[in-house]
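Protocol step 4 of 5: obtain the predicted structure for the target chain.
Materials: sequence only (see below). No template structures provided, no constraints applied. The aim of this step is simply to have a reference model before the mutagenesis design in step 5. Sequence pasted as it appears in the construct record:
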Amino acid sequence: MRCEFRNTRHRDDGVVKLGEVEVPKVNHFRYLGSIIQNDGNIENDVTHRIQAGWKK
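Step 4 output (structure tokens):
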């Protein structure tokens, strides 16, 4: 599965800093309960939601 928000994909490999500290690059992270992946795929988020549903 893939989730795309735009027709064109622009990749910026710039550096992100908080103050003087560089934020490390990661392949995925959690944001507001969802798992965001750098490649646009949504498999990790779907898998996490299915597993969370089974735990209830």
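Step 4 remarks: Residues 17-55 form one domain. The first helix runs from residue 43 to 55.
Proceed to step 5.
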